[in-house]
Amino acid sequence: MPILPPSEFTFPDPVECDPEGEGLICIGADLSPSTLFEAYSHGLFPWFSEGDPICWWCPEPRCIIRPQDYHPSKSLLRSMKKMDYKITINHAFDTVIRSCSLPRSYANETWISEDIIQGYSALFDAGYAYSIEVWENETVVGGLYGVNIGHGCFGESMFSTRTDVSKMAFYTLMLIGQENQLPWIDCQLVNDHLLSLGASTLSRQQYLNSLQDVVKQPSIDWKKYQDSVFSSKTIAQWASLSA
């Protein structure tokens, strides 16, 4: 894993500077790979509207999902076995993050600006971000992207243009998390959709305590997965990834 140069910025302790648990920790800095690495290593992530200054958050409570506790629905498994989608890892990061940046049916705006895209793309090139893609023929129809530092896996966003395909990418991430014995995958903010997938919460202090241990562990060997193309039919049974 490449070593990034030290960040020019030092982030404050979230608990000390935000005792009320409102979540906003600080404003400023940049979105360079070193700064993003420093922020995630200390429990912060950027979230702001285009044109606004960069805002760094560490919410109370923290939404996480434990891969070992995740169980896909029977309907999702039926869909994966029925449809002949292909699933890849780290084959089309730019396509995924740009697809995630598009406005949704329930919102006209997106927080994934061009600056965010450039920052996370550079982090991907440095080896600290990942993407999972679901393909229909030669088109990416769903997927997700996130950050990985040690055993810390941080989900950022997902998208789909076909029924259940973002859930297929999410299930693939859970399987990777299970195989690598990740204690949790960070989902950041609580929402009903994540809770429906099996997410739960940790207090901010519990999350930060756990984070300091997991980021010191070996990182996921993404090359193990990215050299292959998987069928949704076989991924549903974990046979392809566990071989």
TrEMBL record:
Broad class of the protein's primary localization: cytoplasm
Coiled coil: none
GO MF term list: leucyl-tRNA--protein transferase activity
Broad class of enzyme this protein falls into: transferase
Keywords per UniProt: Acyltransferase, Cytoplasm, Transferase
Alphabetical GO biological process terms: protein catabolic process
Catalytic activity: N-terminal L-lysyl-[protein] + L-leucyl-tRNA(Leu) = N-terminal L-leucyl-L-lysyl-[protein] + tRNA(Leu) + H(+); N-terminal L-arginyl-[protein] + L-leucyl-tRNA(Leu) = N-terminal L-leucyl-L-arginyl-[protein] + tRNA(Leu) + H(+); L-phenylalanyl-tRNA(Phe) + an N-terminal L-alpha-aminoacyl-[protein] = an N-terminal L-phenylalanyl-L-alpha-aminoacyl-[protein] + tRNA(Phe)
NCBIfam families: aat (TIGR00667)
HAMAP family: Leu_Phe_trans
UniProt function note: Functions in the N-end rule pathway of protein degradation where it conjugates Leu, Phe and, less efficiently, Met from aminoacyl-tRNAs to the N-termini of proteins containing an N-terminal arginine or lysine.
Descriptive protein name: Leucyl/phenylalanyl-tRNA--protein transferase
Native species: Acinetobacter amyesii
